[in-house]
Design a protein that fits this description.
Number of helices: 13
Strand content: 15-25%
Shape: globular
Order of helices and strands: HEEEEEEEEHEHHHHHHHHHHH
Strand order of the largest sheet: 1-8-3-6-9
Helix content: 40-55%
Radius of gyration: 21 Å
Structural class: alpha+beta
Distance between the termini: 47 Å
Number of strands: 9
Oligomer: single chain
Length: 295
C-alpha cells in the first residue's frame, strides 16, 4: 500500500465544508431535494429507516436500514427517509459543499451514494460518539464543532474507500487511481507539483513503472490518459485560482503554461468557454446560491 498522503493535496486545494442542520429523531416522511453543488451526509445511530430514491436515478428504489449506518451523497441527488411516526430514527445530518461543485475532483470520482454500516468502517466510532455528544446539547461553539466533525467523518470515509476500493464500489476515476499503490505515487506528486514539467517518462518513474505499463495501468484505473488527467487537473486548479482573484497571467506561470494566451486556449479547449466568460458565469451562480441560502 502506498505510504504517500493521497488526500491532503486534493482537499487542501478543493475544500469541503459541512454544515450540521439536524440532530435528533426524524418522524414520518422527510424529503431532501437535489440542489446544485450540494451533497449530504447522514448518520443513523438508533432506529430503523427506509430510504427511497427517484425512478431512473440508477440507484436502488428502496433501501432498509436496521442498524447504525451512514449515508453519503457527494453529489446533488434527491432522496427521502421513511420511518415510524412514534419510534423515529435517531439522526444527525449535514449538508456538504465541495469547492468546485460537481467539478470537484473527488466528487466526480465518488459513487452517487455510499451506504455503510458504521461497524464496517474502522475508526469511526470515536468520531461518531463525539459528534452525537456535541450535536445533542447546546454549548458554545456546538454547531461549529459538530460541522467540523462531519468533515472529519468524510475524510475517514474517503480513507476507508482508498483502502477498500472493491467494497466501496470504485470503478474508474481519481479515487480508483489513488487506491493503486504505484499510481498513487504519481498522482500525489502531480497534485503537489502541478506546474512541473510532467512528461510520461517522469510520471512513470515516479510510479516506479515502465512507460508502457504506467500508461496502460493509468488508463485502466483512472479512465483517462496521464496527459488528459494532467490537463484536466491543471484546468481545475485554474478555475479555483481565478475564483480566488488570481490573474490568468499569474495562474499560467504557477501551473507551467508558456503564457496566459496558451492557458486561455487550453481552458477554452477543455471547457468550451473562455476563462473570462466562465468566471462571470461562476460568480453569477455563486451569487444565486448565496441568495437561495438566506433564511
Amino acid at each position: 500500500m502506498a505510504t504517500v498522503d493521497r488526500l491532503s493535496a486534493v482537499l487542501e486545494r478543493f475544500r469541503l465544508s459541512a454544515h450540521l442542520f439536524h440532530a435528533g429523531p426524524l418522524c414520518g416522511l422527510v424529503r431532501f431535494d437535489a440542489r446544485p453543488g450540494r451533497g449530504f451526509l447522514h448518520v443513523l445511530r438508533r432506529g430503523e429507516l427506509v430510504v427511497t430514491h427517484p425512478p431512473r436515478s440508477g440507484l436502488p428504489a428502496r433501501v432498509e436500514l436496521r442498524e447504525p449506518a451512514l449515508l453519503f451523497y457527494p453529489r446533488p441527488l434527491a432522496h427521502a427517509f421513511h420511518n415510524a411516526p412514534v419510534d423515529g430514527a435517531d439522526f444527525v445530518c449535514a449538508t456538504l459543499d465541495f469547492a468546485g461543485g460537481a467539478q470537484h475532483p473527488l466528487v466526480r470520482a465518488l459513487p452517487a451514494v455510499t451506504i455503510l454500516r458504521l461497524a464496517e468502517v474502522e475508526g469511526l466510532g470515536a468520531t461518531v460518539s463525539l459528534l452525537f455528544a456535541e450535536a445533542g446539547r447546546v454549548r458554545c461553539g456546538q454547531r461549529l464543532l459538530a460541522s467540523r466533525l462531519f468533515e472529519v467523518l468524510v475524510v475517514q470515509l474517503l480513507r476507508w474507500m482508498l483502502d477498500h476500493p472493491r467494497e466501496a464500489g470504485l470503478q474508474s476515476g481519481l479515487l480508483a487511481g489513488l487506491a493503486h499503490p504505484g499510481l498513487a505515487q504519481a498522482l500525489s506528486a502531480i497534485h503537489a507539483r502541478p506546474g512541473a514539467a510532467w512528461s510520461l517518462q517522469a510520471m512513470a518513474q515516479t510510479a516506479a513503472m515502465s512507460r508502457s505499463t504506467f500508461a496502460a495501468t493509468f488508463r485502466a484505473h483512472v479512465g483517462q490518459t496521464p496527459a488528459e488527467y494532467l490537463a484536466d487537473w491543471r484546468i481545475a486548479l485554474v478555475q479555483s485560482l481565478l475564483e480566488e482573484g488570481m490573474s490568468l497571467k499569474a495562474a499560467s506561470a504557477q501551473l507551467g503554461y508558456a503564457s496566459a494566451a496558451s492557458l486561455s486556449r487550453a481552458f477554452s479547449r477543455t471547457l468550451g468557454v473562455s476563462p473570462r466568460a466562465w468566471l462571470k458565469s461562476a460568480r453569477a451562480a455563486q451569487a444565486a446560491r448565496d441568495v437561495a441560502a438566506r433564511p
